Amino acid sequence: MSGLKQKVQSLIGALQDEDSNVRSNATLALGEMGKDAVPALSQALQDQDAKVRKGVAIALGQIGKDAVPVLVQALQDENLGVCRSSERALRKIGTSEALKAVEEYQSRQ
Fold it and tell me: 27: helix, coil or strand?
């Protein structure tokens, strides 16, 4: 297993930690790993802690266009902070799909 894949696997394991700070830090680190981290980050959107879910949105924004579908899903979160973080990430990505999702989100507010 390559060094990068080992890092990703280790960080994915950290998403299961009982400490929400560890999980949150793992999401941010996964954002630096690129599109291979999207499936794990997508699952982390189910985390009970809103701070972790906000970290997911920030991380997905770092990944870019490969993360747009997951960020669109995150706009449905019950926590306004998660929605706002997802909105900012989509704006940062800036593709037409991302910006359309932001526009639709804002029209529902």
Answer: helix
Q: Could you tell me how far CA 58 lies from the centroid of its own chain?
A: 6
CB 78 within 8 A of CB 48: no
Domain boundaries in the chain?
3-108
Tens of pLDDT, residues 20-55: 999 999 999 999 998 989 999 999 999 999 999 999
Q: What is the CATH number of domain 3-108?
A: 1.25.10.10
Which residue's entry shows tokens 């999702």? Answer: 101
- 39 Cβ partners below 8 Å, 6+ apart? none
The 10s digit of each residue's pLDDT in 68-89 is 999 999 999 999 999 999 999 9
Nearest to 70 by CA among 90, 50, 51: 90
Cα 98 to Cα 52: distance, rounded to the nearest angstrom? 22
